[in-house]
Amino acid sequence: MLDIKLIREQPDLVRTKLTQTGVDAAEVERVLEADARRRKMQHEPDDISARFLSRSSGEGLAELLRFASAARAFTFSRTAVFSGGPSSAN
Description:
Helix content is about 80%, strand content about 0%. By secondary structure, it is mainly alpha-helical. It has one domain. Helix 3 runs antiparallel to helix 4.
């Protein structure tokens, strides 16, 4: 297993080594793109919480509830993809 930090910091080295083992170098790009999306998504809850705390009206609460609902849906779909189904017991 490769450390994501190594892939981020030395993608050319990782591409070269993977190519030598028969793995398509484009896999590195896919991993970096997925990592960038994941990192962006990690910051969204913090941004929404900050907006919620800075507002005095119910708008912030409504936005927080919308995000929580979307986060639950994302978690459910991610669980289904990576575990083979939402009720898969491995």
